[in-house]
């Protein structure tokens, strides 16, 4: 249960709507909101970053924690499916770098100004984004032929 | 003794005897190591092959390595790649010819046999460098780098500490060195003997690539490093060469510090030498299998800051001893 | 913007790009580290993961809540019940399902035994990394695994399997302890505790080991919080955060134990934190075994149709303290019998992210020491 004062602050400053684990804020205030949380309110510990697919939008959620008051806050933004792009917070929380890469890899949401956006769990040339509901589970991905991976000299 | 076997045929026969004897010892040293280490680790070690207690295990290992495919990397430097195992094994085997097995029982009894022995022992490191360079593999290259930085530099305190027995004897002939220990083994000489032996032991660990100084072939970092590209008979030669080298160094240590073939008469001299050699070998094994590995900068620092000055001072002290005697 | 395969470019003469892994004795699994070296010094380190990705989160969307608990035991395969414990906690929290007290204590019991077992693996493999397969490390490894075999035999007697014990159910646990097993557990705890001083002497008390781990891979507090590392790695950097105290679950709000912290933040501090945690866990298993409350271990109606449990719409997050850190499950439910989206907050995934920050500047030998002190499990990283 997130602390009510923080929720109230975010409601007024960023027109946030609360939900069970935290707040949902508009896409464009993500960077400012998280910067404020980190610098002004002491939420300096990064917990997780995850994505969910809705009917017409993706939801990108970041969870941050204030270790002094032991409060975990989930900050959610909605990203339209036809333009799945949101700001990257990798320069606000270093731990978001790999979590955002995973969301890109599995959902296809791009992160603006991410230092190194490439696939993390799937192979680099994998087609598609596996965790989307539209990803067919029986899509065969052919076995790559050997000549594409000829061993080179050295290690 | 070399007068008995003259000419090319004699030399060939003698070489055959040395090689056969040395390689048998080496093979059974591997068995001894595996059993000893297994008991240290609460296991049994080789058991089935040659039931009981796996005394045929070395034979099985050699046979397996011989029948494996011999792979040479496409871009490896062929000449050096094939030369390296030989460079590692041969100098170690040559050293056995110099060890005196009894009074007037050294296969080569040369006035400078001590120097020859140490010179040949150092040649093995060249083989390691050749292997690391010619494999065209970054892991092997790192190992060659480390060899030049570390193992070669550990030669210096070793030679300096080995000079102490030579100084105390007054000669470089190994039989003379052993004879000079009739009254008291050189390790027993207060301070200078023990310090020389201690430094010699540490450098022997570095030479033979044993933990804590097995930085050259750090299993967990470089994964067998300089011999990572070798297979089959060449790998067998590296493996045997490592043990032959260790055994030769132990033999040298037993000869110049522990009295060689000297001992009570109920056992022949060469048995005493063998016992002392094995005791030294087991001691080195005990250290090897108990301690972690040092980092290369720490190992080099210890050599330059501690071992080298200590061995120099020790040499000076022994010189005073000899002059004052 | 999905780039092609990673290009490994050696910038200038004197720089070597070395590929450590994915098959390597010291990378703790299939981890690939691209190291840019200048001589022996590391200039840049890029971890490449995904070799063990099994699509567990996608699989979760196709199985029912009651079927899913055993699946997660394969993630962090060194402490399997921690994963399923976190999962069932999340499901019970969202579904408001009551768990009997005895079951909670039993969950803590098995979790603590698996913490000991996981830390023994960590110690043995750290010995292997630092000492080499042909050296002193193997001896430490053999001793640690001998103790661990006893623990696994005990777990086999309790549950039927050694590792993936299938212990946790939504709403309780599957197996119970009787008085004979309690006595066995106490005897086992005593024997493992008796072996600990020898392990300390072989590792932490050894000057060579101290030289290899002191001031190696120092993680500052700010870096730790920004990256979000968890577990013993975090506590070794001076931040006192343990999920068992901060957000108590199972029986931990009733059990007395201390949280081990250090301030140095180097590999030696992480080593000491984990070694002391073994001692703390051994005391805990004795406390739990001797104080088990009576009662049932599973009180839901018998599951005639395991696919029938529906959870209300909503989101939940629940975490446990696994041997590697905070292991959390974030479940989004749409009111059906299957999770709509399930995200595993894997501690090793977050801990591994610190590698590009702390490896540069050290030597190649430090790479293995740092990786060993971080204790990653690739099943947890890749899921």
Task: Give a verbal description of the structure.
The complex is a heterotrimer of chains A (155), B (325) and C (383). Chain A is of the alpha/beta class and 155 residues long. Chain A is 22% helix and 26% strand. Chain A has helices at 4-14, 30-40, 96-107; strands at residues 17-18, 22-24, 45-53, 57-66, 71-80, 85-87, 110-112. Chain A has a 5-stranded mixed β-sheet with strand order 1-2-5-4-3, covered by helices on one side. Chain A is globular, with a radius of gyration of 18 Å. In chain B, 67% of the residues lie in helices and 0% in strands. The two termini of chain B are 33 Å apart. With 383 residues, chain C is of the alpha+beta class. Chain C has helices at residues 56-60, 65-68, 80-95, 101-131, 136-159, 179-202, 207-213, 221-227, 232-235, 243-246, 267-290, 347-352, 355-358, 364-374, 378-382; strands spanning 16-20, 32-38, 41-48, 168-169, 172-173, 314-322, 325-333, 341-345. A 3-stranded antiparallel β-sheet of chain C has the order 1-2-3. Chain C has a 3-stranded antiparallel β-sheet with strand order 6-7-8. In chain C, a hairpin with a 2-residue loop joins strand 2 and strand 3. In chain C, helix 4 (101-131) runs antiparallel to helix 11, helix 4 runs antiparallel to helix 14 (364-374) and helix 6 runs antiparallel to helix 11 (267-290). The chains are: A alpha/beta (155), B mainly alpha (325), C alpha+beta (383). Chain B binds chain C through residues 37, 40-43, 138-139, 141-142, 145-146, 210-212, 214-215, 217-223, 288-298, and chain C through 16, 18-19, 24-26, 37, 39-40, 127-139, 142-143, 146, 202-203, 206, 208-209, 211-212, 363-368.
